[in-house]
Write a structure and sequence with these properties.
This protein is mainly β. The protein folds into two domains: about 10-105, no CATH class; about 140-275, Galactose-binding domain-like (Jelly Rolls, Sandwich), CATH 2.60.120.260. Helices cover about 0% and strands about 45% of the residues. Strands 5, 6, 7, 9, 10, 12, 13, 14, 15 and 17 form a ten-stranded antiparallel sheet that branches. The protein binds calcium ion. Calcium ion binds next to loops.
């Protein structure tokens, strides 16, 4: 889609009656030009969206969006390859029950700009069975596993970002002088990955932009999430919920509002090793 506004949206929408405004069971999952994927839903059943969560890293283009429903709980997910997903958000959608209408939608989100947006859809809509997995028993798989980075500042090695300490120091620092950098960990085996927490350097004001990726072979990468600010990095870090299989997890650093270096204090990957087939 074009970039009419940073939060223009294109994706899937569901409600109990799409032909009538103000009906219950209303939720949508969309990709935006500048803020990755956004999941919105109506919790109180008045037909107006009142909850929203966003996950960076995804860019409008070759993105799949998915809406799932289990009773009245609806979940929005995004994927760059149709196999590995980021679970953008989930919530109880009042009135969602029985059969619902689902459709494609685009919105310029143009209350202030008045601009129009153009979105191109491909691939159509398919119904799929539930592939979600209970990841509550997943273990930390990344602790002190082998790490590499595109480059590192002196005394700021990649090993600082999976040493088990979330504190600001020590940290890994990679120069952004040439636009981007990356840090990656080798889990040692393919894992079903349910979540990844990324903690940057936290000073209460700066925010970071990055993309989270996963790979089976260290060569082909799928997007699993990320952050496109503007929200200061927090001690809690960013937890990205995923339905993915990966042996390698990579953080591609794209920006830092404080200086031209990207910092990671700790990356925690939770998963369960997948038996070889
Ligand atoms: Ca650390």
């Amino acid at each position: 889609m074009d970039g009419a506004s940073p939060y223009s949206r294109a994706g899937l929408v569901a409600s109990n009656d799409l032909a009538k405004a103000g009906t219950g069971g209303y939720a949508n999952i969309a990709v935006t030009p500048e803020h990755g994927c956004v999941f919105s839903y109506d919790a109180d059943g008045d037909g107006r969206l009142d909850h929203v969560t966003e996950v960076g890293g995804f860019t409008a283009g070759d993105v799949r969006v998915r809406l799932g429903r289990d009773g009245d709980r609806m979940t929005g997910s995004c994927s760059s390859d149709g196999e590995n997903w980021n679970v953008v958000g989930s919530g109880k959608v009042s009135g969602a029950s029985g059969s619902q209408d689902v459709g494609m939608f685009a919105s310029a989100v143009n209350r202030h700009t008045g601009q129009e947006a153009i979105a191109v859809f491909g691939g159509g809509i398919t119904a799929a069975s539930d592939t979600s997995r209970d990841g509550s028993g997943d273990q930390l798989q990344s602790l002190r596993k082998p790490v590499t980075a595109l480059s590192s500042e002196s005394g700021r090695p990649p090993e600082a970002a999976n040493d088990g300490s979330r504190a600001n120091s020590p940290y890994w620092g990679g120069q952004l002088t040439y636009g981007e950098t990356w840090w990656r960990v080798d889990l040692g085996a393919v894992n079903a990955v349910s979540r990844v927490n990324v903690r940057n350097y936290v000073d209460g004001t700066r925010y970071y932009t990055y993309r989270l990726e996963g790979s089976l072979d260290g060569e082909h990468w799928s997007t699993l999430g990320g952050r496109n600010g503007p929200a200061p990095a927090t001690d809690a870090g960013d937890t990205m919920n995923t339905e993915a299989k990966a042996r390698y997890i990579r953080v591609v650093g794209l920006g830092n509002t404080a200086n031209f270096t990207f910092h990671l204090t700790e990356v925690s990957v939770y998963g369960t090793p997948v038996a070889k087939t």
